[in-house]
Design goal:
Number of strands: 17
Number of helices: 3
CATH class of the largest domain: Mainly Beta
Number of domains: 2
Largest sheet: 5 strands, antiparallel
CATH superfamily of the largest domain: Macroglobulin (MG2) domain
Structural class: mainly beta
Oligomer: single chain
CATH architecture of the largest domain: Sandwich
CATH topology of the largest domain: Immunoglobulin-like
Radius of gyration: 20 Å
Order of helices and strands: EEEEEHEEEEHEEEEEEEHE
Helix content: under 10%
Distance between the termini: 17 Å
């Protein structure tokens, strides 16, 4: 079995491989959703604020796209509420709110295609609160914008070698990454916790001390929007082989 010595890195978040979220106690009453574009193409910060009764709960966020809805009609109405949507993503975020009576919880979502999005929000127990948002990313014409690239693997020339992985326009924010020796049948080693996210589309940086040999690296994207069939088939799973 080959041995890999992984240098200790200071991680930039609680978990480098999970979809992140944050929450805070807030004053006020009622429910509301805010959506703000970030400086990353297709990326938005989604915040849901609502009263909460349970000390431990989950934010259930389900996103879908509506067809043939104009920007001016992409609002909460009886028509949009009755409209069927195509699933974009669905995710549960655990919440431990302490003594808060109302909280705001925020995550970063990728809403790539032009169209009307329905964001269904609720706590694990409770009625949903739907919000609508029209996305107009003129420069993003389809999934090919993100999936045409390949997984790049660059040795920065340091000792021990530090590798920089990025995948064109496709953000790397919720993932698992493994490495295996390509010359034997030993199981792959998961090195997800030993790679640092560089933010946005900059990818990952991993520092490894490897014996001389040939290896196979695998990057598996696990963000909820990768359930989309096109992404699942074309860019959820990427490989790279290299020798030291």
């Amino acid at each position: 079995m080959f041995a890999i010595m992984v240098l200790t890195l200071v991680l930039l978040s609680e978990s480098s491989a999970e979809l992140g979220h944050s929450w805070e106690c807030v004053s006020g009453s009622g429910k509301n959703v805010s959506i703000q574009r970030t400086d990353i193409p297709g990326s938005y910060n989604v915040t849901y604020c609502a009263p909460v009764a349970d000390e431990e709960t989950k934010w259930d966020l389900a996103v879908g796209t509506l067809t043939n809805v104009s920007p001016s009609s992409c609002i909460f109405s009886s028509k949009t509420e009755k409209s069927k949507s195509t699933r974009h993503s669905s995710v549960l975020f655990p919440i431990r709110n302490g003594n808060c009576s109302r909280i705001c919880v925020t995550t970063q979502m990728y809403l790539w295609y032009r169209g009307c999005y329905r964001l269904e929000n609720k706590w694990l127990v409770g009625e949903p609160y739907n919000a609508y948002y029209f996305v107009d990313n003129a420069n993003i014409t389809g999934p090919e914008y993100f999936c045409n690239g390949s997984l790049f693997f660059h040795n920065l020339g340091t000792d021990p070698p530090t590798f920089h992985l990025y995948q064109g326009h496709m953000p790397v924010d919720s993932y698992s990454i493994t490495i295996s020796n390509s010359t034997d049948d030993e199981p792959a080693i998961n090195i997800s916790d030993d790679c640092v996210q560089l933010g946005g589309q900059a990818g990952l940086r991993c520092s490894l001390r490897l014996p001389r040999g040939c290896y196979r690296l695998q990057l598996l994207q696990s963000a909820p929007w990768f359930d989309n069939t096109y992404y699942a088939e074309h860019c959820r799973l990427m490989h790279h082989s290299f020798c030291t």
